[in-house]
């Protein structure tokens, strides 16, 4: 098991690199609800095609990257919106 201190360090490093910093619980809930989330994502970011979403295979980091590439939004902004969609 990874200590909280190590997880915080990893998240800080990822944030500095512009990579996803979402916790494992959120990632697992997102990936488990992929079909539902897929529709919400298409509504929120209409520029994404079915092909774009298929390539992500429902993986959190891949979805965040695809949205970032298509829209130019920051990782933080994309993750914040995705978290809001899950509530």
Element pattern in H and E: HHHHHH
Indicate the percent of residues in helices. Answer: over 70%
What is the makeup of the main sheet? none
What fraction strand? Answer: under 5%
Model description:
With 87 residues, the chain is an all-alpha fold. It has helices spanning 4-16, 24-32, 34-44, 50-56, 60-71, 75-86. Residues 5-11 have low confidence and may be disordered.
Provide the fold topology.
Elements: H1 4-16, H2 24-32, H3 34-44, H4 50-56, H5 60-71, H6 75-86
Helix pairs in contact: 4-5
Descriptive labels:
87 residues, mainly alpha
Summarize the entry for a quick read.
By secondary structure, this protein is an all-alpha fold. The protein is built from six helices and no strands. The protein is globular and about 25 Å long.
């Amino acid at each position: 098991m990874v200590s909280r201190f190590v997880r915080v360090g990893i998240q800080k490093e990822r944030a500095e690199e512009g990579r996803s910093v979402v916790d494992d619980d959120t990632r697992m809930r997102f990936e488990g609800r992929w079909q539902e989330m897929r529709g919400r994502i298409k509504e929120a970011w209409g520029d994404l095609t079915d092909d774009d979403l298929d390539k992500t295979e429902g993986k959190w980091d891949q979805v965040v990257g695809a949205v970032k590439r298509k829209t130019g939004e920051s990782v933080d902004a994309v993750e914040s919106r995705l978290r809001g969609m899950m509530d």
